[in-house]
Amino acid sequence: VQLQASGGGLVQAGGSMRLSCAASGRFASIAALGWYRQAPGKQRESVATITTGGSTNYADSVKGRFTISRDNAKNTVYLQMNSLKPEDTAVYFCSADIRIGVYARYWGQGTLVTVSS
Fold this sequence. Notes:
Elements: E1 2-6, E2 9-12, E3 17-24, E4 29-38, E5 45-50, E6 56-58, E7 66-71, E8 76-81, E9 90-100, E10 102-107, E11 111-116
Parallel strand pairs: 2-11
Antiparallel strand pairs: 1-3, 3-8, 4-5, 4-9, 5-6, 7-8, 9-10, 9-11
């Protein structure tokens, strides 16, 4: 199983960016999907998660600015980020709870998002 994230880069404060993460390989099903981030010198934190049924949960710091969505047919999760702030600068990681026999959490390789002021 592989998670391939894409869409990071440099953006000015107030701008927008969309991250994508696609799961590939042989597996039975995908349950929850999520995005996490880790800023320099800080611990990894949850940004947003989405269940199979579409229920979402967001960190307080991104509520109203970020939107997580998923395309089950494409095994892909997205993170639309609007009104970006310099404090959103971090490496963003996608996660997927995937069942191969039993469920386990898999991680993407991380994509760097840099927001300039």
